[in-house]
Design brief:
The complex is a heterodimer of chains A (about 160) and B (about 500). Chain A has about 160 residues and is mainly alpha-helical. Chain A is built from eight helices and no strands. Chain A has helices spanning about 1-20, 25-55, 60-65, 65-70, 75-100, 105-120, 125-145, 155-165. The longest helix of chain A has 30 residues, at about 25-55. Chain B contains 22 helices and four strands. Classes of the chains: A mainly alpha (about 160), B mainly alpha (about 500). Chains A and B meet through helix 1, helix 2, helix 3, helix 5 and helix 6 of A and helix 9, helix 10, helix 19, helix 20 and helix 21 of B.
Chain lengths: ~160, ~500
């Protein structure tokens, strides 16, 4: 509940900052940004007030619980949050890997590590999965669609992977 | 018009062939259908997630191939989402919820094949009927579209955004605020009228604005994957029944009147901005419940007509949703907003110009929908047993390859490493919005429509001054917009009351 309100406040702040900074745009270019920023700040403020009002109404106070309490236990929510947190860590890991050593090498390393740590795959099975997945990816994206790959700072590894297939 | 129809079809087959035998657009149509079928089977991932992942790859393709890839994927998603709905009572997408009511009881008594056969054939008929309605509506809409000017198109855009914010979310104020944020994000970079820069922070990447692909992928695909991981890892093992598919097809043909009615209903509702799959399937189910003989006693216990009605309607919805998108350039849903973005990337600008100068493209869309439905149905009829196994695969095994595809897709937007930053930041925003009940479709829709609205607004003001606000159609559309918002707020208020009442009652029972 607190997080939801903080998030709503972030919307209000975004709207307010956008409104202030949009004043410096040229007249025609500023019209829609000012209108949208004003709407954002007002609507988010209204939502915050309504949310606060709903939580303090007598009918809500008497129950003493939020709606979310009925839907799932705290253990379920905790496990779900823990899985989401792990997922976020993997996303950031993959992002940094792509940025530094290029896409193809990162993809291969990411797949193998993810499968070994998050599933019951052993190393040989993870390597086989990775090889097949890389084959499919490269055939579809390199040879059929013909898209460029992010090479990263160390592009030599990228070229080596392409040459294997 | 007939010439445009035949030219569009001929164009699909006259393109260079892949591997010497398959014309390129047909090849990409099959690829799109296969991707759509896989995405549809995985519970939690829907057509929108598939679209946002595929869209960045389309600018490099020919127009016909790009349309084939996207629409093939979109039309096939609904075909395969009935598999987990019928077999495991888990909807592949929001549009398969009503199918569970009768499809799963049929599966429990060993008639899964019949339920799936009925679902596939109803979808094909629904898709074909809706494509026909779309084709028929084109000659009717052409003179109407010519009658409208920039002020009317501006108001149509405002109406579209407000209806999506109101109808599709159940949280009107949050929906409107999300739409406002979407417009603000769309304003980053060079403005489309004067060319002056806004909110660029001296970063070259932002001069052309934030690209659609990483934003859309971050908002929709990443939070959905996180949600699937958080909720469950594997669907329980239920033996997939084989056989009986033809009996289901026969059921659809016997109930052809119901199929046609629900298809027309789905196409008509699909044309209304904001009408999502989750609403349409229940409306079609409700229609069948009221009109089919003996439904009050048999529905919910495994009546095949309870499968046919929602399945024909949800597949008809997409073709219906193309009517406002193609004719007015106003998408009525997040999926259509993404499709509109893909069309703009291809240099195709939906609206009056499209209907008058590029009619062949409209028929290319219609033919793609028709062929996509037929190919999708043929594949699921042939391989539904194998595809059902995909829904039972541990989602953790599929996650790495989905993530890799997501990152690759995001990079194609502007081929800059900053695309990844946009992806991750919008992914975080999407996840927070999902967790705190802020609707995401209005944000995406407003992001796509923002520059278009700004251009129409500028032209209206330049041409008519403020007098454009007094034009009769503009006033009419404004009244409809306000009425829609008032209705949405009233519905929200009632929903909150019901929820609080239900919560108090549940807690009382538990105590």
């Amino acid at each position: 509940m607190l997080w939801a309100r903080i998030f709503t406040v972030a919307w209000i702040v975004t709207g307010a900052i956008a409104l202030i900074t949009a004043q410096s745009f040229k007249q025609q270019a500023a019209l829609l940004p000012i209108a949208a920023a004003s709407a954002l700040a007002v609507l988010a403020s209204l939502e915050l007030v309504l949310d606060w009002y709903r939580s303090w109404r007598p009918s809500s106070r008497s129950s003493g619980h939020g709606i979310r309490d009925v839907q799932g236990s705290r253990e379920d929510e905790g496990e779900s949050l823990s899985k989401t947190r792990r997922f976020a860590v993997w996303i950031v890991f993959f992002w940094l890997a792509v940025w530094s050593i290029g896409f193809l090498v990162s993809a291969a390393i990411f797949m193998v590590l993810y499968l070994i740590t998050e599933t019951d795959f052993g190393v040989p099975r993870a390597l086989c999965y990775c090889f097949v997945a890389m084959f499919v990816l490269i055939v579809i994206f390199e040879y059929i669609i013909g898209v460029p790959w992010p090479t990263g700072a160390w592009s030599g590894l990228h070229d080596a992977v392409i040459s294997v297939f | 018009m007939l010439e445009a129809t035949t030219n569009a079809l001929a164009g699909m087959f006259a393109c260079p062939c892949i591997g010497g035998f398959l014309p390129e657009p047909i090849g990409f149509l099959v690829l799109g259908v296969v991707i759509g079928l896989v995405i549809g089977v995985i519970p939690g991932l829907g057509g929108l997630a598939g679209l946002v992942i595929l869209i960045p790859f389309t600018p490099d393709l020919q127009t016909g191939s790009a349309v084939a890839l996207l629409l093939g994927m979109l039309s096939a998603t609904t075909a395969s989402d009935s598999i987990p709905a019928v077999l495991f009572a888990v909807p592949g997408t929001a549009g398969a919820q009503a199918t569970i009511l009768d499809g799963h009881p049929m599966a429990k008594r060993g008639e899964a094949g019949r339920a799936l056969g009925a679902a596939y054939s109803a979808q094909v008929l629904g898709g074909l009927v809706a494509a026909l309605l779309l084709a028929v509506s084109v000659p009717i809409l052409r003179p109407l579209v010519l009658f409208l000017g920039s002020p009317e198109f501006f108001m149509l855009g405002v109406l579209g955004i407000s209806m999506v914010a109101t109808l599709s979310t159940g949280a009107t104020i949050k929906g409107l605020a999300a739409a406002s944020l979407g417009i603000l994000i769309a304003m980053v970079g060079r403005d489309p009228v004067l060319g002056s820069l806004r909110w660029h922070f001296d970063v070259l990447y932002l001069f052309d604005g934030i690209p659609l692909a990483p934003l859309a992928i971050g908002l929709f695909a990443l939070p959905e994957i996180a949600g699937i991981l958080g909720s469950r890892s594997r669907i329980s093992n239920v033996p997939a029944a084989k056989g009986g598919l033809l009996a289901g097809v026969k059921d659809t043909l016997v109930n052809w009147r119901l199929t046609l009615r629900c298809s027309a209903l789905g196409a008509w509702l699909g044309a209304i901005p904001g009408m999502g799959l989750a609403v349409i399937d229940w409306l079609a189910y409700g229609h069948a419940l009221q009109t089919v003989r003996g439904a009050s006693t048999s529905f919910g216990k495994g009546d095949v007509r309870g499968v046919i009605a929602p399945e024909s309607a949800i597949n008809a919805k997409d073709a219906g949703a193309f009517i406002p998108t193609l004719a007015f350039g106003i998408p009525g849903s997040a999926s259509m907003a993404v499709i509109l973005g893909a069309f703009l990337m291809q240099g195709v600008r939906p609206g009056p110009d499209l209907l008058n100068e590029n009619l062949e493209f409209v028929y290319l869309v219609i033919w793609t929908l028709v062929l996509g439905n037929i190919i999708g149905c043929a594949i699921v009829l042939a391989a539904s047993g194998r595809m059902a196994r995909l829904a039972q695969v541990d989602i953790q095994v599929l996650v790495p390859i989905i993530i890799v595809a997501v990152f690759l897709a995001a990079f194609q937007a502007s081929r800059s490493s900053l695309d990844f930053l946009v992806l991750v930041v919008s992914g975080l925003l999407g996840w927070l919005m999902k967790q705190t009940g802020w609707p995401r479709p209005p944000l995406l829709l407003a992001f796509v429509l923002g520059p278009i609205l700004e251009r129409y607004y500028f032209i209206s003001t330049q041409a008519y001054g403020w007098a454009w606000t007094t034009r009769p159609i503009v006033i009419g559309l404004l009244i409809v917009t306000i009425a829609g918002l008032v209705y949405g707020l009233k519905v929200d208020r009632n929903a909150v009351k019901r929820q609080q009442h239900g919560t108090t009652r549940k807690l009382g029972q538990a105590e």
